[in-house]
Specification:
Layout: H1 6-11, H2 18-21, H3 24-43, H4 47-59, E1 64-65, E2 77-82, E3 86-91, E4 102-107, E5 112-122, E6 129-136, E7 149-156, E8 162-167, E9 205-209, H5 222-235, E10 245-251, E11 256-258, E12 264-267, H6 270-284, E13 293-298, H7 315-328, H8 333-341, E14 344-347, E15 351-352, E16 374-377, H9 393-405, E17 410-412, H10 427-431, E18 436-441, E19 443-445, E20 452-455, H11 456-471
Parallel strand pairs: 1-2, 4-13, 4-14, 14-18, 15-19, 16-17
Antiparallel strand pairs: 2-3, 3-13, 5-6, 5-10, 6-9, 7-8, 7-10, 11-12, 12-20, 16-18, 19-20
Helix pairs in contact: 3-11, 4-6, 6-11, 7-8
The structure holds manganese (II) ion (2 copies).
One manganese (II) ion binds at residues 271, 302, 448.
Length: 473
């Protein structure tokens, strides 16, 4: 091998695997972090469950609910739950929040199959009771058939009582599933379809029950009735109660290590719970930061950040207002504006990793590589950067210096080939309020599939990057 010229060393950009860059001491901590992460993934399969899991994890590290008795001394750790679907963690800094805060914002909703508000029916020939679904977020629908699905969510009964449902995660729990046609019989029909239509939205029906009730042999749909009877016995539900329910079918079962070297995690909802967990663990590792550190966990990113729990809501603004009230005893409009405009944010989200099989969708020089460190994405969007919050060179430079100073492996990337597709993050909704913001998070393979793949090395890099940012390094 000829020795690399000094000029190349000095001038050319290198792409190196995080495992070749991380010191041994840090590599040794990657396993424990991934173990805690996998536990979090298994507990937090919906936005509501993620809020509870984040709250538990943070409370074990001394975070207390924001309230009238919250001290305003630097180093105070607090949390704030919003509508049971978002949560905010904060560690009060030495400087007042009017001088700006450091925000790491991630999302805790993931693609899934929601039950319709009137989901239950019995197919007339087979007498199989099925659940109609309406998918949530961008999925490849065919991937969601023939896998075990668990039902998670909340039902508000006619009398206002709330019932939490979680069926399919225990080792002896039943699961639900969407069946598919046999390969012996699909040549003239399903095989001729465009892959995107392998399953159509109105074909994603989950099997609920197949035994006809014996209690009412004259009833019309006896399998459906038997299922309703079981739901009534267990939860006090009737069919009309589905109308005021939020029930989500998600892949059942636990996350797994992948590879002989156990280098990857396979699990549901890693977009974006890998960033959420990294931000959570980073916030818990903080001492007293210079600026107040805020970790925000949003809902509804996968459907456009809409609604009062999405990143387009007032949550960020009103929370910073609350920090002003707490630490400075005032909440004037000008102080709030000043705080927002001098704040900085990382939008913690995942991007698609360079696919070793379907390489064509990427432009490899600007594609993220699994295990090559946390990905800094200056812009997202589609059709000529449309819909992107393009981070400034100045702020990008600042983040780059932070990563280099802390020796955190990182890479720069964009989502795919120009005009191949695209996507956005919550960065632009944060930028609207005047904060400097850039996307920073691990890349993922099988993005939006029922089970996604992330690298433990990248998780460690993300945790370190969020921590460095919130510490004000
Ligand atoms: Mn995401
Ligand atoms: Mn996504």
């Amino acid at each position: 091998m000829p020795r690399k010229s000094k000029l190349e060393d000095r001038l050319a950009m290198k792409k190196e695997h995080a495992w070749d860059l991380l010191p041994a001491r840090e590599k040794a901590s990657a396993g424990a972090l991934a173990t805690a992460y996998r536990k979090f993934l298994d507990e937090a399969k919906t936005e509501r469950e993620a809020v509870l899991a984040i709250k538990r994890y943070a409370e074990a590290k001394g975070f207390l609910p924001l309230g009238p008795g919250t001290p305003k001394t630097p180093g105070t750790r607090l949390h704030y739950v919003w509508k049971n679907k978002c949560i905010v963690l904060a560690v009060l800094g030495k400087e007042p929040p009017s001088k700006g805060v450091s925000v790491v914002a991630t999302h805790i909703d993931s693609p899934r199959l929601d039950l319709k508000q009137n989901p239950l029916f019995e197919e007339s020939e087979t007498k199989i009771a099925l659940l109609r679904t309406h998918y949530y977020g961008g999925i490849k629908k065919y991937q969601w058939a023939t896998i075990p699905l668990a039902l998670h969510g909340k039902v508000v009964l006619r009398d206002g009582r709330e019932v939490d449902i979680n069926i399919g995660e225990g080792p002896d729990d039943p699961v639900f599933t969407i069946e598919d046609v046999a390969p012996h019989l699909f040549r003239q029909s399903q095989a001729k379809r465009h892959l995107d239509e392998g399953f159509k939205g109105e074909e994603l029906h989950a099997i609920l029950a197949t035994l006809p009730t014996q209690k009412d042999r004259k009833a019309k749909c006896r399998s459906k009735l038997a299922a309703l009877d079981l739901l009534n016995t267990a939860y006090g539900m009737t069919e009309a109660d589905f109308s005021s329910a939020e029930l989500e079918l998600v892949p059942a079962g636990r996350s797994r290590d992948v590879g002989l070297d156990r280098s990857l995690v396979m699990g549901y909802g890693q977009d974006d719970r890998v960033c959420a967990f990294a931000a959570l663990d980073a916030a818990c590792a903080l001492g007293t930061p210079r600026r107040t550190a805020v970790a925000l966990f949003f809902d509804k990113e996968e459907i456009g950040s809409e609604g009062n729990t999405g990143a387009r809501s007032r949550l960020l603004v009103s929370f910073i207002g609350r920090m002003l009230e707490l630490q400075e005893g005032e909440h004037r409009e000008s102080a709030l504006r000043g705080a927002l405009e001098s704040s900085e944010a990382l939008s913690g989200d995942t991007t698609s990793a360079l696919d070793p099989v379907f390489k064509d969708v990427h432009e490899p020089q600007n594609a993220a590589r699994l295990g090559f460190g946390v990905v800094v994405t200056k812009f997202t969007g589609s059709g000529g950067k449309g819909g992107s919050s393009d981070a400034s060179a100045e702020f990008t430079g600042k983040i780059r210096r932070m990563l280099d100073k802390r020796k955190i492996p990182w890479q720069t990337a964009e989502l795919g080939k120009v005009d191949e597709g695209g996507g956005g993050t919550i960065a632009k909704f944060i930028a609207e309020h005047g904060l400097d913001v850039i996307d920073l998070g691990p890349c993922v393979l099988s993005l939006h599939a029922p089970m996604e793949l992330a690298s433990k090395a990248d998780l460690l890099c993300a945790q370190r990057a969020y921590r460095a940012f919130m510490e004000g390094a």
